[in-house]
Amino acid sequence: MYWIGYDVGSSSVKASLVEAGSGKVIGITQQPDNEMPITSIEPGWGEQNPEMWWENLIKATGKLIRETGVDPYQVAGMGVSYQMHGLVIVDKELNVLRDSIIWCDSRAVAVGNELCAKAGETKCLERLLNAPGNFTLSKLKWVKDNEPGIFEKIHKFLLPGDYIALKLTGRCTTTPSGLSEGITWDFKDDKPALWLLEQAGIDTELLPEVVATFSEQGKLTGQASKVLGLKAGIPLLYRAGDQPNNALSLNVFNPGEIAATGGTSGVVYAVSDVSRTSEGTRINNFAHVNHKPENPRIGKLLNINGAGILYRWMKDQISGGTLSYNDMNWMAAVVPVGSEGLRILPFGNGSERMLYNANIGAAVKDLNFNIHGQEHLFRAALEGIAFSFVYGIGILENDGVQLTTIKAGGDNLFRSELFSRTIATLVDREIRIVDTTGAVGAARAAGYSYGDFDTFGDAFSGDEYIATYSPLKEAGAYREAYLAWKEALATTQY
Fold it and tell me: DSSP assignment of 92-106, as one string?
């Protein structure tokens, strides 16, 4: 018997099979081979067609079954991880009404700020642990204000993972963790924040049914069974946003533990047992997958929109696509710490919440034509992203996080020793790189939900560490470079 897990990102869809009982990884696939496109018809906008996610999920499933040779009828249940904060809206026939407004879209910043002012910032921070910001509810309000003809046809509004669950089960559902990422979960009352929807002028009937994160959330429909090649009736057992799921995949469940990712965007996700915030306008506080009102586990998330997308831009535009990321890393490693005065701010992918929702764009500072070459640009890019992580960890510490450990998966920027070592040295903590992915985590979480494992640790403790990066003793050059970068940020931001 096997569990299948999906990780539906904005770049690709990953699928994974794990063996029931042992949690052993049988296979992992990804679709498409190249990254899925993001449509940006206005500066700061980002949209994707949800059907594209579903089509690639179908392809990834078929590829996974072919490559592993597993009998698809031995797959007993499903788990889903997904890109957070997006908005998908469907009509009564459950058809999508417009492209999804995804996580990196900045259009609803002003809407969220206005909603926060109307509802009261203190009330929002006390009950939501967040300001509405540029998140799912604010995006829905933007549609109401700017596309009334579409808005009046809405039957339910969904997160990207809720849409995938709909395609799998035929049901419109969401989770408390999902509603908290959409800034519509009241932590004090432990229920949807109906008062905030009413404040936004949105009918509360547009909310989908709420189901538990670990629960039977529906069964695979006959129609979905035909296109996926899986047995009709198997249950969807787990669903979470990519960052809570990434933390779960890394066995991060306890206060002080951090799960980090360095994909298209960068994320620092710290677990806390404190249901309050002083930095709720710069970070987000979500119900972690193991959160309970009587035993709080709050995921404090700091997002950096401009992260891996900068390094990809360097690969495509500076190297012309001729270099691999490994080649770029090797070239960057020959350049001294600080990139000989070259500094890059990576914030070129929409408004940055940790910068108070400012959209300052990316910047290259102090470029010298007589000194700097490709290798300097590559190092300055890696350093700029790493410095952004360090800057963000400082914000989390201001919000009460007492940092103990940092873990990251082995499929992103943290594979670069230069990148990881820079962060480890500046925060004076080891960074452990773990051999796992979000799709594997979602599959194992399905098994845990079914009762296949007694504890979270049983499900996720068997992964191997790829590497451990310890802080360097000689940190002076790193601190100088970081302070120079912070100075460049301050003069650009304000």
Answer: TT--B-S-EE-TT--
* pTM (predicted TM-score): 0.87
Other Cβ atoms within 10 Å of 479 Cβ, number: 12
- The answer for residues whose C-beta is within 8 angstroms of residue 307's C-beta and 6 or more apart is 262, 263, 264, 265, 266, 346, 385, 388, 413
Q: What is the pLDDT of residues 461-471, one digit of tens each?
A: 666 788 999 99
Give the span between the Cα atoms of 144 and 55, in whole angstroms: 28
Which of 222, 246, 252 has the alpha carbon at shortest distance from 234?
Answer: 222
* Beta strands 465-469; 431-434: pairing state: antiparallel
User: Which of 118, 462, 104, 477 lies closest to 304 in space, CA to CA?
Assistant: 104
Q: CA-CA distances (angstroms) from residue 258 to 234, 264, 340, 421?
A: 33, 19, 31, 16
Judge residue 122's burial from the number of C-beta atoms within 10 Å of its C-beta, 0-12 exposed, 13-18 middle, 19 or more buried.
Answer: exposed
Q: What residue type is 166 in one-letter code?
A: L
Contact between 182 and 135 under an 8 Å Cβ cutoff? The reply is yes
pLDDT 10s digits, 168-193: 999 999 999 999 999 999 999 999 99
